[in-house]
UniProtKB/TrEMBL annotation:
It is found in: Membrane. It comes from Faunimonas pinastri. It comes from the Bacteria. This is Inorganic phosphate transporter, PiT family. The chain crosses the membrane at residues 48-67, 79-98, 110-131, 138-164, 309-330. GO terms for biological process: phosphate ion transmembrane transport. Keywords: Membrane, Transmembrane, Transmembrane helix, Transport.
Length: 334
């Protein structure tokens, strides 16, 4: 087999990985722009350009700790091969498309983790699992929305106290400007955490194929390709989920939108620094629920919020089953 022929499966899998990253941007664009669109600070088209730019430049701000976790900390590197990674990506893509079509803001991150676990277990059983990384990721399912909720609630209370003597018009005008900053910071955190997951998968694929050697690292071209794919996906929006995140959970004003985005951004910055692949969907949902509940508990449409939580619980096992299925099919036709 020629070198070119041997590289074709790798090239195809890299293309599938970048397709996942594009769909991740498409699916999770709502996380970055829902609040700024629902408060009418930016029209939808301007909002997606704003978010896409900060999605792309995130690699200039953060290290690649999350990529290291996905590449080495979910299943052992000895298990990774093209079949496992194909199953992982297809499991994540299938779940993303299903939830995007249904307008359910599930986690692209946990879909990828689930697909990787499912395909890895299908190949090598439970010995394939790197429990330290998996437990950190599962723990973040609870902690990231909880931290987003707490920070957003704290910000609402502090900001409300600060602006108590100002007129509603003046407050609204100020936070319409500040929401440009908060939306940018949240998009930066989204691009920093989410794009790195695909970087880790592609780097793992290159190591498995013998194209990279030495300590685990992510080449610059992989970083740029993943950030670009996510930014392009964000440009296409994801309007079904924007509606759910921006108005169906609760109604937002610019001050509340600012507090939700800042609370979510702090959570994402912290998780990315620690190398934990968290869900931007979980984080911003917790923050949005907090700012709605701060007004009054009945302001939150709890039936919508509860259906989102159900999707969170189902995502990893569902994507895992699909990932295992695609792994089996790939091995069957190998």
């Amino acid at each position: 087999m020629s070198l070119t022929a041997s590289m074709l499966p790798i090239i195809a899998l890299i293309a599938i990985a970048l397709l996942f990253d594009f769909l991740n941007g498409l699916h999770d664009a709502a996380n970055s722009i829902a609040t700024v669109v629902s408060t009418r600070v930016l029209p939808p088209k301007a909002a997606v350009f704003w978010a896409a730019f900060f999605n792309f430049v995130a690699f200039l701000v953060f290290g690649l700790h999350v990529a290291d976790t996905l590449g080495t900390g979910i299943v052992s590197m000895g298990v990774l091969d093209s079949y496992v990674l194909f199953g992982a990506l297809m499991g994540a893509i299938a779940w993303n498309l299903l939830t995007w079509w249904a307008g359910i803001p599930s986690s692209s991150s946990h879909a990828l983790v689930g697909g990787l676990l499912g395909a890895g277990i299908a190949k090598a059983g439970f010995s394939a699992i790197v429990w330290n990384g998996v437990l950190k990721t599962i723990g973040a399912i609870v902690l990231s929305p909880a931290l987003g909720f707490f920070l957003a609630l704290l910000l609402v209370l502090v900001v409300t106290w600060i602006v108590a003597r100002r007129t509603p018009f003046a407050v609204d005008r100020s936070f319409r400007v500040l929401q440009f900053i908060s939306a940018a910071l949240y998009s930066l955190g989204h691009g920093g955490n989410d794009a790195q997951k695909t970087m880790g998968i592609i780097a793992g694929l290159l190591y498995a194929g013998g194209f990279l050697t030495g300590p685990f690292h992510v080449p610059l071209w992989v970083v740029l390709a993943c950030q670009s794919a996510m930014a392009c996906g964000t440009l296409f929006g994801g309007w079904r989920i924007v509606r759910t995140m921006g108005s169906r959970i609760t109604d937002l004003n610019p001050m509340q939108g600012f507090c939700a985005e800042i609370g979510g951004a702090i959570t994402l910055f912290l998780a990315t620094y620690l190398g934990i692949p968290v869900s931007t969907t979980h984080t911003i949902t917790g923050a949005i629920v907090a700012v709605g509940a701060a007004r009054r508990t009945r302001a939150v449409r709890w039936n919508v919020a509860s259906s989102i939580v159900v999707a969170w619980v189902v995502t990893i096992p569902a994507a895992g089953l699909v990932g295992a299925l695609f792994y089996a099919v790939a091995r069957l036709f190998a």
